[in-house]
Amino acid sequence: MYPDDLLIGQSPPEITNIRRNLDLVGPNDAVTITATITDLDQGGAVTEAKVKYRVNGGDLVELPMVAGLNNLWSATIPAVNLDSALVDFYLWAKDNDGMISLNPQDTVRNKYFYLVLNRPVTIYDVQYSPFGSGFSAYNNYRVTISGVVTADTSDLQGDGNQVSRRVYMQDGVGPWRGIWISGLAADPLQRRQNVTISGLIRESNSNTMIDSITSVVINSNNNSLPDFVTVSTSDIGTLPNGTISAEQYEGVLIKYLNVTVTDENADGNPGPGGGGNSNFGEILVADNSNVNTRVELQEGNHEYHNLWVAGLDTVPGNIRVLQNSTFEELRGILFYSFGNYKLVPRKSDDFVGYVSDVNDNITFVSEYKLEQNYPNPFNPITTIQYNIPKEGFVQIKVFNILGQEVKTLVNMNQAPGNYKVIFDASSLSSGVYLYQINVNDYQMTKKMILMK
To answer: Is residue 167 included in any domain, yes or no?
Structure first.
């Protein structure tokens, strides 16, 4: 190309480096918004710029911006004397050719915003993203937040490749309550510790995290964990990043109830990856809503797998998750990676009531039968297999030697077939236990031994 072969046409002003002057905003704080605004046209100039803002979704107010040195424009939003007020805004600029630009371009979903708080900032405040962008009001600002560690590096060990080990904390039950603690400073933290952390909030691969940590204070140990929030698979589904029904549970302990494995490999054919087949350790499950969503098996520290590499099914104690099998509960932390929200179970107790139909040809099932568990004695996982020749509501419960119920393994309607259920006794003491099946008019009880 020669110099005259490329002609620059007109372009609107460029708005970059938008910042507010305060990390934390209180009821008596005016907030100055600055931005670099330039016109790239030869001989062009920015003639006008504005900040357009609202308080709690009210009327839009326009503030003229003032030009300073090095194309730095500024305007000050007056103090808002309302605790927990939400102030959202965007920038508008015009050049000498009358061309107009906005930042963000999408002034509905991607608006900038901040919270006015007359109290310490919480994880909820940091995660809250009401417009669907997925970004925090504190993105690239420094905060101090507290919570209970819900997953440590012994829980979420990563996939050994592109997703690393992770630590999370949570400050209550419900949406917007969990956050990823990133960096080496998080590695020593342990589940159930109550901690106070100072650091920088940022977005990494569409996950909000606290990073560049300057202070970690362990307030106490052995705290109770927040309860799991029951979520439908339709709330998460395959929704795009930032969708509020899913985004609000990012980093939060959640659980799905009575789910069926609809695809044992979400990304290819069953069996190991390689040779043209893709298997990243993810399965699809659906509850009664019949909406599929992903569960990631590689990153947690447990025995469940979908045979993403050959040989996993030959390791003693490993459990292959098969299509059409069911879970009474699936628990874990919601994570976003590679274009998908996905539930990531931490350890084996996040898998509750796994039942696998091990015989697709139900014509061979002619009688009710409860098999002896195997292995027996066991520590801490054992398999119970059973047959039902007719459809019915199946209950399998575990009792201690005193006859007190300690666990319900199956509590659902099932078609005729040959099934197996996994019993994880990690939380129980060594001893003799009884397990009992009730379906239609059939009842059978057998004994098993937990030996730790």
So the answer is: yes
